[in-house]
Acyl-CoA dehydrogenase family protein (Streptomyces coerulescens), 422 residues
Amino acid sequence: MDASFTPEQDEIRRTLRELLNSRCGPRELRAALDTPAGHDPALWTALAGQLGLPGLALPEAYGGVGCSATELALACEETGRALAPSPLLATTVLAAPLIAALGTEAQRAELLPRLATGTLTAALAVPGPALATALALTGGNGGTWAGGGRAGGVQARRTEDGWRLYGQVDQVLDGHSAGLLVVAAHAGGFARSRTLLFLVPGEAAGVVRTRQTALDATRPQARLQLRDVDAELLGEENADALTALAGAGDLAAAVLACEAVGAADRALERTVEYVGGREQFGRPIGSFQAVKHRLADIYVEVEAARSAAYYAAWSTTTPRGATPQRGAGNCATSHNEPAAAKQHITPPPAVRLALAQALQALRTAAAEAVQLHGGIGFTWEHEAHLYFKRAAGDELLFGPVHRLRAHAADTARLFDTQEVAV
């Protein structure tokens, strides 16, 4: 196995890190969080216009760069280091893959080029507490999370002119600022219950959007109220929306794992810098054996999570049974792969386990950062609490860790027992 990166992948990481270091430092980050959008539009323009980040994993035929999930995940490792607030996760990781998978040719041709250039942002409207369920991260995504024949969620009804939606969705990532909403809604009543996905312009009549206070301010959330809103069905009515959501969950898990590793690595890096300069009893506290042991444990956990995250990113676009090669999934080859080669990919447990390991590593690194920074570690002025809140917020949205692991074990049939004939 060769886990080294290609020069192209290294260049993506280097360029993005330089941009974020100059445009998304602690002061710029805090200023962006206080804006109505919750992110810096100028930074988003730079990420989209200069680096083509929103279109990194979209096909060239629709204006994308034509890279694979590997490059997108590596890029998000850098955005995770900086805790960069942007519509990247909601637009590129959650919404765009659904449009690419389910959309008609006309819908893909109209929307994907605009998403790839960053001129259009999108959000997946699924209730925040049900997001991990909808993406099949912590269990099967059938059931009542989108209404399920009962009151609640978003309901869809057919009219002579198309479809209309009504209902409310809370904790929608970047839902307050997205130009396009991909809304998961229940249709068919109780007897013919099914979940469909719909396209709704963010400024459509009847859409009321309110930004909510979130634990992790770097991931802005919104409440959406849909008051008898005209909607366009995404794809065909017989399309399997639940399978498409599960596929988007595979990509999201790999990307989030790399993002969490980036944040954990940066939290550890800042802690090492601090304990190397903070003196007590006439010597740096980083020279004390107890501190060294704690930092060593964090380092081992972060590096283990990094390996798992890189494997998850590789596995999402690699045929099952293949051996990881140098730079697997790079831009030079990924968009030229025949469709048949992308079938039978590595099964989902790999990405769920990677996400669980990365979220746990981030939680550990962030908590130890607060502790080892001493009195300033829990102050509002220091950045340590932002990493801690990212760890807690991600686990609330996409976890918890024990459920990610339990679902991966169930999917892999790890604990199945067979009766032995006597």
In short: The first strand starts at residue 122 and ends at 125.
